[in-house]
Amino acid sequence: MGKMKRCSTCDTLNQLNQTSCIECGSCDFEEDFSEASETGEEPATGQAASESSEQSQPRGRCPICSMELDSNLQCPRHPRTGFRLVWAELGISTQVPDNKPLFVGRVPPVDDDLAQRLERGFPTVSRLHAELTVGQDGHLYLRDMGSRNGTCIDNQPVTNPFERHRVQAGAELSFSSKLHAKVDQA
After folding, report:
1. Which regions of the chain are under pLDDT 50?
2. Whether residue 89 sits in one domain with residue 70
């Protein structure tokens, strides 16, 4: 038996330490609770929990418009887009969450793994260099956070820091001219 929390969007059980749902990526959780099992086993999480609860419980509602989600846990009005950044120099990719910003930089709130890699090899990338978000319209947006060495979208400098700039799938992003990422639609 372990303490769990249920995602308000897709009804999936998640461990208490999860900051976003392992199934849909939502950050909206119901109150924490204990899930008891007669066998003493941990309750199912993720896909197994979704499949076992699919028949008896609702699929969840869109956090934007409260419309019921379809069988793929997608809102007909606000589908998840699935953008990711493929980092040329790092040899990794990073998923852009649909429900919270992805920060690029060398210190938190940047993802720990990304921040550590940038801190070691890219001192010209600012501590909090840029923010990427998926808008309610489903498009990807970039905001330079006032970085010292600038940000470019398809080799065009972002000249207005702190303003949102729409980014197309396939675009090439550069952060301080030393770090490059391609935007893919996953």
Report:
1. 1, 34-57
2. no
Given a contact cutoff of 8 angstroms between Cβ atoms, the answer to whether 183 and 140 are in contact is yes
Distinct helix (H) and strand (E) counts, the chain? 2, 13
Q: Is pTM beyond 0.85 here?
A: no
d(C-alpha 49, C-alpha 46), whole Å: 5
- Quote the domain boundaries for residue 52: 1-79
| DSSP conformational letter for 77 | S
**String of DSSP letters for 136-151:** TTS-EEEEE-S-SS-E
DSSP reduced 3-state for 34: strand
Q: Which tokens sit at 128?
A: 């909090």
What does the pLDDT look like over 48-69, one tens digit per residue?
A: 444 444 443 456 777 667 777 7
CA angle 149, 94, 180 (to 5 degrees): 35
Same domain for 149 and 127, yes or no, is yes
Mark out the alpha helices in the chain (DSSP H runs): 46-54, 112-121
pLDDT of residue 158: 96
**Residue 95 parent element (H or E):** strand 92-95
